[in-house]
Fold Condensin complex subunit 1 C-terminal domain-containing protein.
Amino acid sequence: MADAISRIIEELESHQNLNPTPPISRSTLLELQSFLSDDGSYSDPQIHSLWHELSSRSLSLSSLINPIAAAMDSDSCSLSLLAASVYLSLFLAPRTPVFSLFTPMSLLSLLHSIRRSLRPKKENSSATLSTERPRKAGGGGRGVRGKRARVLNSDDEEGGGASGEREENELDIKLLFSVLDRLVLVLGLVHLGRFPDSMKSLVQTVSEIPVLGLDLCRNSRNYKRLCEFCGSILRQALKPEHGEQDMTAPEVLKSLSPLILSAKSQARDFALVFVTNDMRNIAQDSNSVMKAMVNLPRYLSQKAPEKTDARALAVESIMEIFKAIEFGDQVGFIEYVVKMAQGKSHLRSLAVDLIPKLMTSLEDPVGSEQKHEVEDSWKLRCLTALIQRCSDSAAGIRARALSNLAQVVGSIFGDAQECVVMHKALGLKHWRDGGVNDLLRKRCMDEKAAVRKASLLLITKLMALVRGSLDAEILKTMGMACSDPLVSIRKAAIAALSEAFRKFSDRSVITEWLHSVPRLITDSETSIQEECENLFMELVLDRVSKAGSTAFYEIPNVQDSKSSTKNFEKELEALYPEGVLHVLEEICNGEVTPWVKKICTSLGKKKRLRPKIATALQNVIKTSESLWLSHTMPIENWTAPPGAWLLLSEVSSFLPKAVNWDFLHHHWKLLDKDGSRNKLKSSTVAEGIYEAGEGLESNSVSWAGDRVLLLQTISNVSVELSPEPAAELAHDLLKRIEGFNMHSTEVNAHVKALKTLCRRKAMNPQEADALITDWVDQLVHKASDIIDMYLSEEQEANKDNNFFTPPRSSGRKGKRVSASSRLLSQATTAVYTIGSLVIVCPSVDLKAIIPVLHGMITSGTHEARSEKLPGSTFSVKQKAPALYIQAWLTMGKICLAHGKLAKRYIPLFVQELEKTDCAALRNNIVVMLADFCVRYTALVDCYMAKISMCLRDSCELVRRQTFILLSRLLQTDYVKWKGVLFLRFLLSLVDESENVRQLADFLFGNILKGDVFPAQPTLAVSLSIGLESGI
C-alpha cells in the first residue's frame, strides 16, 4: 500500500509544473481505484494515508484533481470513464474534503467523458486497439505472452472480432452505469446551487443521454436501466439544494423538450413519462415545478415543427402533458390555443390540430351544463376559432380545419348538450338560413383538392345535425363534385351525397343522387364502380324491395265522387314512404336510365340481384292497379308507377323465375285491350315526331312506354314459358307488327321480343335462324305492299288533281285526305319496321324495297329518275316529311348491313346533310354517319370537314349531338385531330348554348389533364402548335 501511494505521489509531483497538465496514467488510476473502493466499501486508513502524504509533500488536492480531469478529457473512452469513476469515488470516500475536490471544470470534464462514451465507435477501432496491445506487451520476459496475444488477435480478425467488440461494448456499458450510479450519490453530497452554469450543463448532458444511448444499449434491459439513472439524476437536480426550483424546473423541461418533440422512440417515451409522472409528483409539493409544467405545453407549441408528421407527434406529446395538469390550467391553455389560432401560419396549423384533441380530452365536454352559459363556454370559442380557420389564407390550414371540424362533429353525435353548442357555432338552427352554408359552398368549389375533399367530408358528418331539408345549392355542389377529376374527391362526394340520400327522402335529394352517382358506373376507377354498385343496391334496390316486400294491398272500392288522380297519387305515396315512388319515377329520366341499365346488368352478371326485388316491383304495380280501381276510375286511364316496369324489365333478364307469367299475361291483355284508341295516338305521334325541325325531343306516350317495357320483360322470361303460351304470344306479336299502326318504340320492342322468343324456343341455332328469316321475309313483303299502296294512291291523287279544274268538292276531298292520312301513318311505320327487321336479320332479301326507298329519298330533286320508281312522280319530302325522314333512316340501317350499298350512298347522305332544312333529318344523318365512320372509316374520313360543320348548326340538339358523337370517335381514334376539326371544336367553347359550352369545357379540360386521350399524352402540346400555325 505504501509503494502504491509513493508511485501516485511521484507521478503527481512530475505533473505539477507542467502546462497543460498531462492526464494521469491508467496504472495510477487502477491503483487509486484499488484502495479507494473494494466491493463498494471504502478503506479509511488507505485514503487517510493518501491525504496525509499529499499534505506532507505540500501538494494540494488540485494536483490530484487536475490530472484526473485531464484523463477524463482524453480520447480513450475506457481511460476517460475510469478517470470519471475514480473522481466520483473520491467524493464518496470517508472524511473526504468534498468542497475542495469539486470544481466546475472537473464537472465539465466528467460530463464530457460521459458524452464521449455514448458516441458511436469508429469503424475498426476495436481491431486497431487489439493490434496495439500485443506490441506494448512484447518487451522483456513477456515475449511469449506477446506472441500469444498476437495469435489471439489473428483469430479475432478471422472470426472472433465481432465477439471481442461485443465484450468491449458490454464493458463500457457497465463502466458507464457505475459512473452514473456514483454521480447520483455525489449529487446528494455536492450542492450545485452555487454553480448555476454547472447545473445547466449537468441537466443538458443527462437529457441527451437517452438519445445518445439508443445505439450503445443493444437491448431494452440496458436501455431501461440507463433511463432509470437519468431519471434519478434529474430528480436530484430538481431538489431545492441544487438551486431555486423556479430556475431548475424550467431548465429541466427545456432540456427534455427536444426529446418530447422528436420522432417516436424510447427516448421520447422516457421524457414524457418523466414529465407526466415524476415531475407531476414533485409538482404536488412545489408551486414552482407546477408552474413550469403548466407553461410547458405553451413552450412546446412554440417549438413544434412545421412538417405534418412531426407536428402530429408534437400534438400527441402536448396532449399527454395537458392531461397531467389541473383543470383550471387546462382551460388556460385552451384560451392560449384559441389566441394562437390567430397567429403565424405554423401556429395556426398547430392550433387547428390541437383544438379537436382538446375538445374531446376534458371531462367537462362543454364547459358548462347551464344553458345560459353555453355562449360563454370554452368549447364554443374553440369551435369558432376552428370555423374561422376553415377560411384561412393557407390552403393546407383550410383543409386541415375542415377535416378536424368534421372529426369534432362526428364525435359529438348523440350528446344533446354538445349538439346545442355545435348548432350555435355553425348556425345550424335552420339549414337554409345561411350559417355554414356559405362556407361549405365556397370550400366545395375551392381551387385546392384537399380543401374540396375535406369540405365534402364535413358535409357528410353534418347530415346527422341538419334539421329540415338540405340547401339546393349544397346538393348541386355535391353532385358536381361527383365529376371531379380526382378520384379521392369523387369518392368523398359520393359518400356525402349518399349520406344525404339516407337521411332525407326529398325529391331534390333523390334527383341529385340519381343524376350524379349512377353515371359513375363507367368511371375509370374500379373501386368507384364497385362503390356505385353497392350504393345502388343499398339506396335503390333494397329500398324498393323493403317497400314492396309485403303482398300487394287488396283495396276495397271507395264510393267517392271527388276521387281524382291527385288523391290517388297521395294515397299511393302514403303506401310507399321513403321516396320510393320518387326513386322509380326519376329512373325513367333519359339522363339516368342508361346508367341504371348498366348497373343492373353489372349486378346481374355478378349474381347480386335477388328475387325479392322482382317480387317487390310486381307488388308495387299490383297495388297501384288495385288502388286505381278502388277509386272507380276507368282502367284504360291507369298506368303503373313510372319506373316500375323499367326496373322490372332490367332485373327480369337475370331473375326470370321470379316474375309471374300470369302477372305479365294479365297486364299484356290490359294494355292491349284499348288498342283502338291507342292506334290513333300512335299515328298522331308517328306523324308528329319528325315534323318540322325544332321540336325534336318529343316525349313518349306513357302507355306505349309501358308496353315496350312489358314486352322486354316478357322476352326476358320467355325461356320459362311452356310451349302453348309461347306460341300464342308469338302469334300476337306478329299480328301486331303486321298492323303497322304502332309507335316506333313499340315496333322495336315487338321485333326484339319476337326474335328472343324464337331463339329461346328453338331446338338449335339453325332452327332459330330459319324461324326468324321466315317471319322477317313475311313482314318485309307486307311492309312493301303498304308502301306501294300509299305511293300509288298519291300518284293517282296527283293525276286527278291535275285533270280536274276546278278541284273536286270539299266533302269528297276530306274523305280522301282522311284515308290518305291513315295510309301515310301505316307507310311510315312500315318503313321504320323494315329498318328494324334489317338490324334483326341482315340477310333479308331487300331487292324490291331498295329502289322504292331510293325513289323516296331522291324525290323532289332535279336529277333524272326513272318513272318506273314509285314516288318519282311527286315529292315525298314535301308531301310526307315524316315518311321522307324514315326513308333516310331505314336506308342508313340497310347501308350498315351492306357495305357495297354504303359505298354508293354515303356521298348522298353527306349531300343531304348539307342541303336539308329539317333539323330532325340532319340529326339522324349525323348519327348514321358516325356509325358509318366506325364501320367504314376510310369512306367517311374524307367527309369529316363537312360533318364537323354541324358543330355550328342552327339547332342546339344537332350541335350537341354532333359534339358528343365526334368526341367519341376522336377518343376511340376513328377520327384524327387534323384540318379544321380542332378549330371548330374550339368554337364550341363560346357556343350560345350552356349545355354545349359545358361539354366543350369538360372535353378540353380533360385533354389538358391527359384523361380523355391517355394514348396521346402529348395531344395538348400538338393541338397548341396546330392552333398557333392556324392563326
